[in-house]
Amino acid sequence: MAYLLMFVTLLHLITLAMQFIATMEKSWWEWDGLENSDLWYNCRFDNFTGSWLCTSSKETDWLHAVQILMVISVVFSSVSFLVFLGQLFTMSKGGLFYFTGLCQVFAGLTAFSAALIYTLNNREILQDSRELTSGHFGYCFILAWVCVPLLLLSGVIYIHLRKKE
C-alpha cells in the first residue's frame, strides 16, 4: 500500500510539473528552431544579439479558450494535490479519495479539451504567423497530450485508493 501511495504521489507531481511546463514554456508550434509560438508569445531568435525576441500572440477566441483551459487544468491539479495531502492526514481509515480523484479527472479533461482545440484550430490561432506547412508542433504541445492520459489514470487511481493505516 505504501508503494501505491508513493507511486500515485510521484505520478501526480510529475503530471503537475508537465502541465506547468506545457502551459508556460514557449514551444507549442515551431518553425526551423529559430521561431516558435506558444500560448502567450510569438518568439524569434535573433542571431545578431543571440537572444529571443518575443511579441504577444494575436488574441483569438480559440487561443483564449486554450489558455483558460490549460490554466484551469493546472489549478485543478494543484488543488487536487493539496486536497490529497489534507485527506491523507485527516481522513478516517477506509475512506476513499473521491474529491481528489474527481479533481484530477477534471484536470485531465480540461487539458484534453485545450490540446484538442489547439490541434483542430491551429490555423486560426496562428493566423498572422509564418506558413504553417514549414512548421510543426512543439514539445509543449506534446507534453500537453502526454498529460491527458496520465491525469486520467491518476484520477482513477485516486478514486479507487482507500486509506489504510
What structural keywords apply?
single chain, transmembrane, 5 strands, elongated, alpha+beta, 5-stranded antiparallel β-sheet
Structural account:
- The protein is an alpha+beta fold.
- The protein has one domain: Butyryl-CoA Dehydrogenase, subunit A, domain 3 (Up-down Bundle).
- Helices cover 62% and strands 13% of the residues.
- It has a five-stranded antiparallel sheet.
- The longest helix has 30 residues, at 61-90.
- It is elongated, with a radius of gyration of 19 Å.
| CATH domain class name | Mainly Alpha
Strand content: 5-15%
CATH architecture: Up-down Bundle
Number of helices: 5
User: From the helix content, strand content and strand pairing, which structural class follows?
Assistant: alpha+beta
Secondary structure: helix percent: 55-70%
User: Order of helices and strands, N to C?
Assistant: HEEEEHHHEH
Low-pLDDT ranges = none
Strand arrangement across the biggest beta sheet: 4-3-2-1-5
pLDDT averaged residue by residue: 85
Number of strands: 5
Overall shape: elongated
Write down the domain tally. 1
